[in-house]
Every structure is written in C-alpha cells, then in structure tokens.
UniProtKB/TrEMBL annotation:
SUPFAM superfamilies: Family A G protein-coupled receptor-like. It comes from Heterocephalus glaber. It is a multi-pass membrane protein. The chain crosses the membrane at residues 23-46, 58-76, 96-117, 138-156, 195-214, 235-258, 270-290. Residues 39-288 form the G-protein coupled receptors family 1 profile domain. Odorant receptor. Keywords: Cell membrane, G-protein coupled receptor, Membrane, Olfaction, Receptor, Sensory transduction, Transducer, Transmembrane, Transmembrane helix. Its main location: membrane. This is Olfactory receptor 14C36. It comes from the Eukaryota. One of its GO terms (molecular function) is G protein-coupled receptor activity. GO terms for cellular component: plasma membrane. Pfam families: 7tm_4 (PF13853). It is found in: Cell membrane.
C-alpha cells in the first residue's frame, strides 16, 4: 500500500524550539483576528441599522465585511491554537475545507471589490442614471452570481489539487494548507496544475484589476473637473480607501500564491505568508472606519440613540407613577 493511499492527514509547520516566538506569534495574530472581527462586525451592524446607509455602496461594504470575517476565521484561529498547543496535524478533510474556503472567499472578495469600483464609477460618472444602473435587483443578483461563481471556482481548484497522489511526504511547509505547498508534496507531474492556477489567477485578478483601474481613471478625470470643495473631498474620501484596499489585496495575493514555490521554507517565510494573508482583511475595517465620515457619523448617531434610550428607560423605572399620572392628566 502506497503512502498516497495511506495518507489520512497532513502536518503543518510549527515554530518549534522557540516558545517565546510561538507565544508572540499566537498573541499577535489573535489580536489581529479580534480587531478584524470586531471592526467588520461594527461596519456590518452600522450599515444595517442606519437607514441612511441602505445604499448599493454600503450594501456591498456590509457583504465585504462579512466575507472578510469569514475569510480570516478560516486561517487564523486554527494556526494560533496549533502554535499555543504545539500541535501541527490537520486532517485531510480539514485541509480540503481550508483550501476550498480560502479560494472561495478570496475569489468573491475580488469580485466584490470590482463591483464596488463599478458602483463608484456609476455614482460619480453617471449620477443621473445611478438609480437605474445600481438598482436593488442588480445588487442582489450580482451578489448571488459572485457567490455561485466563487463556489464553482473554488471547487474546481480544490478537486484538481486533491486528486493528485501525495507520496513524497505529508509535511506542508506552511502554517496553513495552501495549494502551492500541496503541489510540492505530489509525486506526479503538477505542471498542468501550476499553469491552471497561474492562468486563472492572472485572468481573474488581472481582469478585476484592469477594470478597477479603468473605472478610477474615468472617476478621477471627472472629479478633477469638480470645483475645489465638499464634493471633491467626498469623492476622494470614498474612492481612495477602496483603491488602497484593492492594491493591498492584490499585492498580498501575488506574494502568497504566485511567488515561486520551494521545497524548503524558513520560519520568516511562513510568518510573512500568514502576515500577508491577514493584512488586507485587517485594513478593510480600519480604512473604512477611520476615513469614512458617513460610517463615523452613523456610529456616533447609534451611540447617542442608545445612550438616550437608556436614559429614558432609567427615567421610567425611577418615576413610573409620576409618568403614568402625567400621561393620564394630559389625556383629560
């Protein structure tokens, strides 16, 4: 019986022999995880509760925040737990799930960033036609199409990877399961897999990036014709954070997935790969929370409304008789 048929799981790399570094790694990425989750939940809650933010742009921003929370939850908690418990094993089913979900969320995030660029283009370049271009049906259908195409794309790459026989070893040179590391373990020819990954990534990421850049060329050519004032500042405050997130997301993806794979990796390489995997997910809530005036204003309104309702509730609890009497007297 060959190793490929006996293999029931994989061993992830661990930062062994350096307890201080293990603790620092787990604490740092746990903090990044908590900040990312809390920031994205705040954005999702604010854009849901504040009716003034029920627009296409914030509809996709809310979905993007939910996706980012799911994306980072696939990678970071398991890696931090393995580091603290000094365990490195992952079942084959767990590895399949991790690869599938990472590809799925990354693909859908790329599409959402492209749709958001289209939304900005329609809002600034064609404001009179904006309600028709970005109507609610289009928003819902484009979201469902992104999710469905993401499922198909992730399934194809996952199946194409795990149909290979893994007989060299079952030790992955990464802190989480990814396709480049898995291909290094296969004893069959992986050239077609590598070409498929490279071409599909180039087409998807390249196509999204080209469309986003083209949209923003049109957007800024229009914005620079605006008179200096509130309209120009509002346009820049909306578009610049989105461009930053796109650049960070695509450059991180290139570093993690399209760099040359090797049969040996240093701890520095592994930690950098993890770092570049989670940084774009952290930047989304930070950039949109700190730079977006509408989000900050909505947060202040919700806090004020909650504080006011809390004070009113305490007043009713302290003076229930007086309030009921005054209410009845007013009716007379």
């Amino acid at each position: 019986m060959t190793n490929s048929t006996m293999m029931m799981g994989f061993l992830l790399m661990e930062i062994s022999g350096m307890w201080d570094l293990q603790v620092f790694y787990a604490m740092f990425f746990s903090l990044v995880y908590l900040v990312t989750i809390m920031g994205n939940l705040v954005i999702a809650a604010v854009t849901t509760l504040d009716k003034s933010l029920h627009t296409p742009m914030y509809f996709f921003l809310r979905n993007l925040s939910i996706l980012d929370s799911c994306y980072i939850s696939v990678i970071v908690p398991n890696s931090c737990m393995n580091s603290m418990l000094e365990t490195s094993s992952i079942s084959k089913a767990g590895c399949v799930a991790q690869v599938f979900l990472v590809i799925f969320f990354a693909f859908v995030v790329a599409l959402f960033l492209t749709i958001m660029a289209h939304d900005h283009f329609a809002a600034i370049f064609r404001p009179l036609h904006y309600p028709v271009i970005m109507n609610p049906h289009l928003c819902v259908h484009s979201t469902l199409a992104s999710l469905l195409s993401g499922l198909i794309y992730a399934a194809l790459h996952t199946i194409n990877t795990f149909r290979l026989p893994f007989c060299y070893s079952h030790a992955l040179l990464q802190l989480s399961c990814d396709i480049p590391s898995l291909l290094n373990l296969s004893c069959s020819d992986t050239f077609s897999n590598q070409i498929t990954i490279f071409v599909s990534s180039l087409v998807i990421c390249g196509g999204c990036f080209i469309y986003i850049i083209k949209s923003y060329i049109h957007i800024f050519s229009t914005v620079f014709r605006f008179p200096v004032g509130a309209d120009r500042e509002k346009a820049f405050s909306t578009c610049v954070p989105h461009i930053l997130i796109v650049l960070i997301f695509i450059s991180s993806g290139i570093y993690v997935y399209l760099r040359p794979s090797t049969m040996s990796a240093s701890i520095r390489d592994m930690v950098l790969s993890m770092f570049y995997s989670v940084v774009p997910l952290l930047y989304n809530p930070i950039i949109y929370s700190l730079r977006n005036e509408q989000i900050k204003c909505a947060i202040r309104k919700l806090i004020t409304r909650r504080r006011y309702s809390g004070n009113a509730l305490r007043t009713k609890e302290v003076f229930p008789i007086q309030l009921s009497h005054s209410h009845g007297f007013g009716n007379i």
